[in-house]
């Protein structure tokens, strides 16, 4: 997950036909906004907290494209929105499947990625503040490739390719890292990582019941 306060960068270069195809697939799988379709109940899952060991595990490739996968994607979207986040993976809720959901803004629509893999990355780099739903309350600046090209499948198993820059590029790299078992703080130097962990531990102590 990438922290919600990131400034919105340009997302030019995204191929509209891929976005339309993914939207059609999502509709077929009944990934719907509960406020629009009353029969779909919101299902918010429990998010794992750092240092849960699952956050360092490699997610398994999805090979079965069925209603269970669609239900998982819906759960991820509900959980993402409840956390006021813009990106989440199945790993964040303890399901080790290569599935990620991104919603940068309502106007941008929901992006669902099955078996995402970055196949090209630009040499030029950008820096963004990042964080995680599994480590709320702390962020740190991380350097990422400015542009990426990613292959993935939609919820019906159709193979897709997407190019992105700016904030979307950052989000894609962040979520693919998580699916590969690379929790975001491990992109930091040891010194910065230790500082982030200490800040997180402090926020957890101050938020503990009875304090």
Describe this structure as you would to a colleague.
There is one protein chain. The chain is α+β, with helices and mostly antiparallel strands and 211 residues long. It has one domain: Peptide deformylase (Peptide Deformylase, Alpha-Beta Complex). Helices cover 28% and strands 21% of the residues. It contains 4 helices and 7 strands. The strands form 2 sheets. The chain has a 5-stranded antiparallel beta sheet with strand order 1-2-3-6-7. Strands 4-5 form a two-stranded antiparallel ribbon. A hairpin with an 8-residue loop joins strand 2 (99-102) and strand 3 (111-121). It is globular and about 45 Å long.
How would you spell out the order of helices and strands? HHEEEEEEEHH
Task: Please tell me how large the radius of gyration is.
Answer: 17 Å
- Compute the number of helices: 4
Highest-level CATH class:
Alpha Beta
How many beta strands in the DSSP annotation?
Answer: 7
Largest β-sheet summary: 5 strands, antiparallel
What is the averaged pLDDT score? 85
How far apart are the termini?
Answer: 28 Å
CATH homologous superfamily caption: Peptide deformylase
> Looking at the chains present, what oligomeric state does this protein adopt?
single chain
Write the CATH architecture name.
Alpha-Beta Complex
How much of the residues is beta strand, in percent? 15-25%
| Morphology call | globular
**Uncertain regions spanning at least 5 consecutive residues:** 2-28, 32-40
What is the spatial order of strands in the main beta sheet? 1-2-3-6-7
**Which structural class matches the secondary elements?**
alpha+beta
Give the tally of structural domains: 1
CATH topology: Peptide Deformylase
Helix-residue proportion:
25-40%
């Amino acid at each position: 997950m990438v922290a919600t306060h990131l400034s919105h960068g340009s997302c030019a270069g995204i191929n509209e036909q891929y976005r339309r195809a993914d939207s059609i697939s999502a509709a077929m799988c009944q990934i719907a906004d509960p406020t629009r379709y009353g029969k779909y109940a919101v299902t918010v899952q429990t998010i794992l907290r750092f240092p849960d060991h699952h956050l360092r595990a490699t997610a398994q490739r999805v090979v079965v494209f069925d209603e269970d996968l669609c239900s998982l994607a819906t759960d991820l979207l509900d959980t993402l929105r409840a956390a006021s986040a813009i990106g989440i993976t199945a790993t964040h809720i303890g399901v080790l499947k290569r599935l990620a959901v991104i919603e940068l803004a309502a106007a941008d629509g929901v992006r669902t990625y099955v078996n995402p893999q970055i196949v090209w990355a630009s040499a030029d780099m950008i820096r963004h503040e990042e964080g995680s739903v599994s480590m709320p309350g702390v962020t740190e600046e991380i350097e990422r490739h400015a542009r990426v090209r990613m292959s993935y499948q939609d919820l019906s198993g159709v193979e897709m390719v997407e190019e992105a820059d700016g904030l979307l590029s950052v989000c894609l790299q962040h979520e693919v890292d998580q699916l590969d078992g690379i929790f975001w703080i491990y992109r930091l130097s040891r010194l910065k990582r230790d500082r982030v962990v200490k800040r997180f531990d402090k926020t957890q102590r101050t938020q503990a019941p009875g304090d």
